[in-house]
Amino acid sequence: MKDRGIPGYLRFFLYISLFYIFFTPLSLFARDSIVTSECELKTAYVYQFTKYVNWPEVKKDKKELIIGVIANENMVEALSRLNGRLSQGMRIVVRSITETPDLGDIDILYLEKGYLTDDDLIIEAVKNHILTISDEKDAITKGVIIELFRANSRLRFNINLKIADKSNLRLSSRLLSLADSLVK
């Protein structure tokens, strides 16, 4: 979309709205349409987050942006729809993680609610400059950078800036301004 003077935060919500509108009719025919719609909305947010993160030099000049997913099959399937899309000039590759992962080449780690149980995994994510995202309650107090949550039937997010700094990740001021709360 060509920039026609539309502020970044409006573009962000426009992309999310269009993504949601596009996938909602498909989900109406799904067996678990409410779950599927929720997964698709979270996927839209994850995709938008990829555009507002600057990774450190050790992760620059990559051709692929790898998203590791530890989640149930509905969320893995929804996030897999990002395969092949571009973000910051990199092709997105989504990997479902079922065993103890080697996080070395992962750029984003999505941990679904109920899967955020391993403190060592979060420590490794910080060491490897990985953007962590979870919908687990109080995820930002457990070391996750972005926590997705529902409030008044809307999806919102909190950001833990301390962990982002420890991970050497720079989050855009546009993204920070849209967060519900920031942990500093």
Tell me what you see in this structure:
It is a single chain. The protein has a single domain (8-183), classed as Rossmann fold (3-Layer(aba) Sandwich), CATH 3.40.50. The protein contains six helices and ten strands. The longest helix is centred in the first third of the chain and has 20 residues, at 8-27. A hairpin with a 2-residue loop joins strand 3 (86-87) and strand 4 (90-96). The protein has helices spanning 8-27, 33-50, 73-80, 119-127, 161-166, 173-178, and strands at residues 53-54, 64-70, 86-87, 90-96, 108-111, 131-134, 146-151, 154-160, 170-171, 181-183. The strands form two sheets. Strands 3-4-2-5-6-7-8-10 form an eight-stranded mixed beta sheet, with helices on both faces. The chain has a two-stranded antiparallel ribbon with strand order 1-9. 36% of the residues lie in helices and 24% in strands.
Quick structural gist:
36% of the residues lie in helices and 24% in strands. With 184 residues, it is an alpha/beta fold. It has one domain (8-183): Rossmann fold.
What is the overall shape? globular
The major β-sheet equals: 8 strands, mixed
Spatial order of the strands forming the largest sheet: 3-4-2-5-6-7-8-10
The overall pLDDT average reads 85
Strand composition percent: 15-25%
Low confidence ranges: 22-35
- Give the CATH architecture: 3-Layer(aba) Sandwich
The CATH first-level class comes to Alpha Beta
Overall SS class: alpha/beta
Features:
alpha/beta; Rossmann fold; 10 strands; 6 helices; 36% helix; two-stranded antiparallel ribbon; eight-stranded mixed beta sheet; 184 residues
